[in-house]
Amino acid sequence: MHKAIPSIFLSTLVIAGCSSAEEPKAPAASAPPQASAESAKLRAALLPVPKGMSVSYGPEIGAFGALKSTQQGMEAVRKARAQHPECAGAAQLDAAKPEVAKSPAAVVAFSAARGSITQAVVSLPSAAFPEPLPKQCADYTADVGGTKVTYKTKTLDMPAKGDQSRAYLTTAAGDKNNAQIGSVMIRRGNVIMSMLVVGQRVKPQGLYELANLADQNLARVKA
Q: Which of 20, 87, 140, 183 sees the fewest Cβ atoms within 10 Å?
């Protein structure tokens, strides 16, 4: 669930509802037959439904590259025309890599009138963490569904979580659909948690509180 908004998350745009792409239908909450035991375990690391929100997608579990959310996100990346194409998947897990695509994963999304939260937990074959956002990806434009969107991203000073962690705040401005996107990524061992919070205004402190809860769940799964 994780390349959604051009810049750091083009693919999650589909789930977060920030692009003109068709929003995927929410799959049944029950695990599909092919889902591995590891994927089912990862589901326990997902956030509970936040107060005032409802589940809008998932939970979906299975191989990361086979998830509908991942596939539609990658399609969104292919369709978007970015000023810097390399920014579309920067600072995120690359589902095009076989070792990442085959990794067990769990994804869920929540929504409310004020915005949405999308979270994914992926168990990689070995400990790895995406590189920081390249300098050229901090301020650039992209054509998303025929709309020119400007993305400006800054790194947040989030208190350290897990073995590695990182957080960004992106302002996306285009036509009348302006929004802020908070992004958090946390690694514990070989498991990575990625979360996007989308709204008209995303407060860093609120993002940190969600990150704390997500990290606590991650720690229990890794215990």
A: 20
Question: Is the distance from CB of 199 to CB of 114 less than 8 angstroms?
Answer: yes
Q: What is the CATH number of the domain that holds 129?
A: 3.40.1000
Q: Using CA atoms, how far apart are residues 57 and 168, in angstroms rounded to an integer?
A: 23
Residue 150 has pLDDT above 60, yes or no: yes
pLDDT digits (tens, 9 = 90+) for 42-101: 999 999 999 999 999 889 999 998 888 888 777 766 666 666 667 767 788 888 889 999
CA–CA separation, 6 and 77 (whole Å): 7
Tell me the pTM: 0.82
Contact 202, 184 (CB under 8 A): no
Distance CA 81, CA 89 (A): 13
Residue 43, Cβ neighbours under 10 Å: how many? 21
Q: Which domain holds residue 218?
A: 13-222
Q: Is residue 4 part of a domain?
A: no
Q: State whether the Cα torsion 87-166-129-187 is positive or negative.
A: negative
